Amino acid sequence: MAVEAASLDLRQTVVSNSTFGPNEIRQIAAALSADYSNFRTLRDAVIELEQQPSRSPAASARLGVCQYLLGRYRDAVTTLTSAVVGDDSTIDKPDASAGARRLCAIRPSS
What is the three-state SS of the chain? Predict the structure, then answer.
């Protein structure tokens, strides 16, 4: 896993429109575990993503996951909820705690 974390372009993984799923989340978690300075890289990439004026639901989901990895749990729930619901206020909002529980189930492999 250390080789996988070392070869990860953390910023690019966060701000790009490439595939983002459980494997990428594990890679980010491994990169954070391998080198604490990656935390700053992730934080800066999250700030960059937050500043995008109109994010797609996929980009919002990516942002919410990264906020969670940074320990910004309330922001993550809000962002992930908006990624699911979008801007349509006529849709009932999903149970945010259920989304957070699903997110907690994604853990880096040992």
Answer: CHHHHHCCCHHHHHHCCCCCCHHHHHHHHHHHHHCCHHHHHHHHHHHHHHCCCCCCHHHHHHHHHHHHHCCCHHHHHHHHHHHHHCCCCCCCCCCHHHHHHHHHCCCCCC
